[in-house]
Amino acid sequence: MLYLYNMNSLRYHKIVDQMVIGRTTGDLQFSFDTRMSGRHAQIIEEEFGQQKVFYIIDLGSKNKTFVDRMEIVPNDKVRINSFTLIEIGDQHFIVTLSDTIERKDLTVIHDEKMKKPITKMNELSRSGITLPPPVPELKEMLKKSSPEDEIKELELKILKLEENLKNELAKYEQAKEKLITTAKKTKIELLERLKKLKSG
Q1: Residue 22 in 3-state DSSP?
Q2: How many CA atoms lie within 13 A of 10 on its CB side?
Q3: Is residue 29 part of a domain?
Q4: Which of 88, 152, 160, 183 has the largest CB neighbor count within 10 A?
């Protein structure tokens, strides 16, 4: 079970499957937030073995959705975990495993994540980071038999390998973020336990 802690209103919201967040439509509405689209983003739940995995999807919003300070591609699902920072409109949310974590601890996590500069898709384009062109359908490639076509096919395979490498590097970065998040979560839990022991 996951929760969204709204850093603006200081309230917890239980995450449910197919949960829609928006200004005028959805399970979680913020009619006063003019930077939020009517139907801005959605959180979905999927089964991964015996584990439930949650993703957020930007529903083509005007001002975009940001996960850990990075703009996400509209209609692509992005996994969220404990202590993920989500920015929708002017609302900042921290994902949590429970609704009992103290505000001061979440504020520390939020403020630390906010130190990272925000990254937008157009900034990635200006920096020279581009995705390789799409690879044609295999059946179309098999129709070609000339040396020129074979060269093109090999070039496309190389591009595909480069794309796979980028994906593997992205997985590595996600794993690194997960380790950092887990360490912070463990620290908070230990601090809470220590506090209880001292007070008891």
Answers
A1: strand
A2: 5
A3: yes
A4: 88
Task: Give the C-alpha separation, 72 to 79, whole Å.
Answer: 11
Query: Distance of alpha carbon 94 from its chain centroid, rounded?
Result: 12
The answer to whether residue 32 is domain-embedded is yes
Model pTM greater than 0.85?
no
Distance, CA of 176 to chain centre: 14
Which domain, by its residues, includes 88?
3-125
Helix 103-114 with 147-199: angle, nearest 10 deg: 150
64 vs 69: CA distance, rounded Å = 11
Identify the burial level of 94 via C-beta atoms within 10 angstroms of its C-beta, where 0-12 means exposed, 13-18 middle and 19 or more buried.
buried
User: How many distinct structural domains can be found in the chain?
Assistant: 1
* Per-residue tens of pLDDT for the chain, all 200 residues: 899 999 999 999 999 999 999 999 999 999 999 999 999 999 999 987 778 899 999 999 999 999 999 999 999 999 999 999 999 999 999 999 999 999 999 999 999 999 999 888 766 555 555 444 444 444 444 454 566 666 777 777 777 777 777 777 777 777 777 778 778 888 888 888 888 888 86
